[in-house]
Amino acid sequence: MAVYIEEKKLKAMERKVKVGEVALRFATLVLGVSAAALMETNSEVKEIVSIQTKAKFTDMKILVFLVIANGLAAAYSLVQLVRCLTCMLHGTMLHSKAVAWAIFISDQVMAYITLAAIAATAQAAVFAEYGQPEFQWMKACNIFTRFCFQSGEGATMALLVSMASICLSGISAFNLFRLYDCSFI
To answer: Which positions fall inside the Casparian strip membrane protein domain (predicted)?
Structure first.
């Protein structure tokens, strides 16, 4: 009887982990697409001394990297979301160590890519907001305010994508290492 109760608790916990994983993968998908779209459509035209100057996301290569990283994270989340939903609908669990390792490593890579992209974007945002007088780099956000606000919104969404990717990496680590020993559960 005690084994049956423990097995029931284990299945309930695994179901909660799966639901959490699906929710995080869906959030990563939606936020990743939103961040990439927000950055990609970001542009502003200003006239300075009768010369039109246009700011667009391709002017800052780090924003291009951020768009690519969020697009990759969204695409990867879509693939993993389909896998998770298929497993949930069929009532199957991950039993293959090789597949669990592949998912764990892929989640780690996505977490590192999104974290690197948001860290570099934060540095670029500091330069855009405050400039770098030692290098004679002027402030850009006092000229292109709407561009900077929209970039900030996209970066905030990208930060949430990165945080969700880190959490998913932890979930995939749990799913992997539970295959080796269930005594810690």
So the answer is: 15-162
Which CA distances in Å does 122 have to 80, 86, 132, 139? Answer: 28, 37, 15, 15
Q: What is the pLDDT of residues 18-63, one digit of tens each?
A: 889 999 999 999 999 999 999 988 888 887 778 888 888 888 889 9
Q: What's the rounded Cα separation, in Å, for the pair 33 and 67?
A: 9
- Distance, CA of 31 to CA of 26 (rounded, Å): 8
10 Å Cβ neighbour count for 60? 20
Cα 79 to the center of its chain, rounded Å: 14
Task: Count CB-CB contacts under 10 A for residue 51.
Answer: 7
CA 136 to chain centre: 34
Q: Report whether 139 contacts 128 (CB < 8 A).
A: yes
Question: Which residue from 45, 54, 39 is spatially nearest to 125, judged by alpha carbons?
Answer: 39
Task: Tell whether the torsion through CA atoms of 127, 66, 112 and 175 is positive or negative.
Answer: positive
CA distances from 85 to 30, 71, 81, 91, 94 (A): 16, 21, 6, 10, 12
Q: Which residues pair with 137 in a beta bridge?
A: 132
Which DSSP state fits 95? -
